[in-house]
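Hi Y.,

Following your request, here is the sequence exactly as I used it, all 185 residues.
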Amino acid sequence: MDIGVLLVYAILGLTVIVSAIGLIVSRNALYSALFLVVNFIAVGLLYLALGAPFIAFAQITVYAGSIMVLFIFVIMLLGAENLMLEEPLRGQRALGILLAVIFLAEIVLYYLLRTTPHQSIPIIPQTFASPAEIGMLLFNRYLLPFEVTAFILLAATVGAILLSKHEGPTRPKPGIQKPETPVEG
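Below is the corresponding structure, written out as tokens. Let me know if you'd prefer a different format.
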């Protein structure tokens, strides 16, 4: 493997790890969302370096683009930029650290105790997962699931719009005054 390619993978991998740690450690929800944007972009660039351009651009446009705009909009709308300094549940930090150590131990045990020999990675054709091939599959073989998904997303969007409308007190229109009722007493 070329040293330049190895350096690109190392930089992108380090960016993914550092941004994920920043996402978890940050006390500001807006900064956490921005760390998540950096993470999504770095993962998309890893996909691109691995030869999967469709997944890379979908990752960047869908996740780093539209989904993160929605997350940041909700964070700013709710005013949830700063997280609480105290733990809502006692011992949750210790439990999280314990579960992380158990997870890492499982990964190490898996690699130490696996019995299957290392196999070479099969060579895939150049057109595998190309945007043209995915488009042909999506609109030919998987047209019905694609249309059903589009309909469900449309229904969810209409439902979200209807649920977000609230019937509050209406303001009088300018120039039209309400008749005042005399107060008896």
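Helices lie at 3-25, 29-49, 53-78, 92-113, 131-141, 143-164.

Thanks again,
Q.
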